[in-house]
Design a protein that fits this description.
By secondary structure, this protein is α+β, with helices and mostly antiparallel strands. Strands 6, 7, 8, 9, 10, 11, 12, 13, 14 and 15 form a ten-stranded mixed beta sheet that branches. It is built from eleven helices and 15 strands.
Length: about 375
């Protein structure tokens, strides 16, 4: 938008109203952007609502759950907040979790107060990293809650003199922050992705949806992984814990976390590509665009690969797609994507690519210490 455009108005959605637990005199609302009385096509929440209507017209309700990983760091962002959190494999370390109990419990109590149904708080794979999970729900409600969760997490961390970061890869030697999404489609009270007669518990609709995601993963990657830093998570070398826990190829499997898509149980799958920087509304919108396209085309995802992609990736069939190596490569794929342009509209895709290409160009103008160290004497 430019100064020549009319006013952009944010119209609050009353169904999204949240009374902020730590400031009860303040209400928070998600809003939809309008201009001249019409929805702004480029607005992410509007885009998600449009594609959810498309699913609804086909008879489906989309339900999602997200796993928002984050680090608690010092206020200046330079170090982990807990100097005693030094184990090589700290995942689920109760001592490190309890040393940050004041922050974790306040956030969890807030989610309980808001009726989100939080059910798990844990120390994650990296030193200083945590994850807090709440009940899955309709995709728009989950997106609103994810947006508020990030605000809540940062605000409460600041109250305690700390900083919460969802940056995809804040430390080179530690596991990055993923934002795994669990997905299911429903027809009324029936889970359309569930089939008890299938070895993985998935219906044909679910396999076609997964097929669409596999076909479109590289095209939507700039949305699921939207920053320069994102590609230091999904294309990372082994971390100090022994694994990156992020995908490096476009594959799916059963209950196997080394793949882009994991099926932990019947009736749903987990999409492990997105990271903590992804837009809470564009993420499900792009994911649905690919999945619904797969359902419409009855795309076959192929057979699940029950191998360790980190240790046995060479055993994967020839032709398995790799993920983009950097943001620029990902943006070029998004820009050419007929899938995204058809589902989300040219206005949104053009705006997104323009803004993110600006990020890439600004990054490319920076002179890094690595460049000086390796080429000063060339």
């Amino acid at each position: 938008m430019t100064p020549a455009h009319p006013d952009v108005l944010a119209v609050p959605d009353p169904d999204s109203l949240i009374q902020i637990p730590w400031k009860p005199e303040v209400g928070w609302l998600a809003a939809d952007l309008y201009m001249n009385g019409k929805e702004v096509d480029q607005a992410p929440r509007n885009a998600l609502r449009r594609i959810l209507k498309k699913a609804k017209d086909a008879g489906y309700t989309v339900k999602t759950g997200v796993e928002c990983e984050y680090f608690l760091v010092s206020a200046d962002g330079e170090a982990l907040s807990d100097p005693a959190d030094t184990q090589a494999k700290p995942c689920y370390d109760q001592s490190a979790l309890m040393r940050r109990y004041d922050v974790i419990s306040e956030v969890c109590d807030s989610m309980l107060q808001l009726g989100w149904g939080p059910y798990q708080n844990d120390h994650e794979d990296a030193n200083g990293q945590f994850e807090m999970n709440w009940d899955f729900d309709d995709a728009l409600k989950t997106a609103d809650r994810m947006t508020f969760f990030k605000y809540m997490m940062k605000s409460i961390a600041e109250k305690h003199g700390l900083r919460a970061t969802f940056m995809p890869k804040p430390f080179t030697h530690l596991t990055g922050n993923g934002c795994h999404v669990h997905v299911s489609l429903w027809k009324g009270d029936q889970n359309a992705f569930e089939d008890d007669n299938d070895p993985l518990g998935l219906s044909k609709e679910a396999y076609h949806f997964i097929g669409g995601l596999i076909d479109g993963a590289d095209e939507i990657c700039s949305i699921t992984n939207p920053t320069v830093n994102s590609y230091k998570r999904i294309n990372a070398p082994v971390t100090t814990s022994g694994a990156t826990w992020s995908p490096n190829t476009v594959t799916f499997a059963g209950n196997n976390r080394t793949h882009m898509i994991r099926v932990p149980g019947g009736g749903r799958f987990e999409f492990r590509l997105p990271d903590g920087a992804t837009n809470p509304y564009l993420l499900p919108a792009a994911m649905l665009a690919a999945g619904l396209d797969g359902m419409a085309k009855k795309t076959d995802p192929g057979k699940p690969l029950d191998i360790d992609m980190y240790a046995e990736g060479h055993k994967a069939p020839a032709g398995v797609k790799k993920l983009p190596l950097n943001l620029l490569d990902a943006l070029r794929l998004t820009d050419k994507s007929k899938l995204l342009r058809g589902a989300l509209g040219d206005e949104l895709v053009d705006s997104y690519v323009k803004l993110k290409t600006k990020d890439w160009n600004e990054f490319s103008r920076q002179l890094t210490p690595w460049e000086r160290a390796t080429t000063l004497d060339c």
